[in-house]
Amino acid sequence: MRIRKLMLGALGAAVMSVAFGCSGLEPYSIEAPEDLAAKIAEYKAEQEREKPVIEGEEIALSPKIVGAEDNSAGWWAEFSQYFTLPAGKRLEAEFKNFSLGEGNYQNWCLCVSTVAERGAEGYVEYFVLRSDRWGWTPDGDITSGIVTAIDGVEEPDYDGDFWADFRTKMNGSTVNIAVDNAREGYCVVEASAKATDGSVITETYTQKVEEGSAINAFFIVDHSHIEFKSAYLVNSKVPEIPDFNATSITVNGFPAQVEVGTTLETVLSADLKATVVYADGTSEEVSMEDVNIADIPGFGETAGRETIVYSYSKTKKGKFGPSVAGYATIEVTNPVTAIEVSKAPVFTTYYFFENTSLDFRPAGMEVTATYADGTTGPMPLSNLTFSAVEVKEGPQEVTLSYKDVETTCSINLVKGAYAVGAPDFSNGWWSTFTPDFTVASGESKVFEMDVYSDNLANFHSPCVIVRKADLSLGAEGEYVVVREDHFGWGNSFETAVAESNWNWDYFAARLNASHVTITVTNNGDNTASIRYDVIDSEGESHFQSYSGFTVDSADVTCALVTEESYLVFVD
Question: Which of 148, 194, 242, 337 sits most deeply, having the most CB atoms within 10 A of its CB?
Answer without folding.
Answer: 148
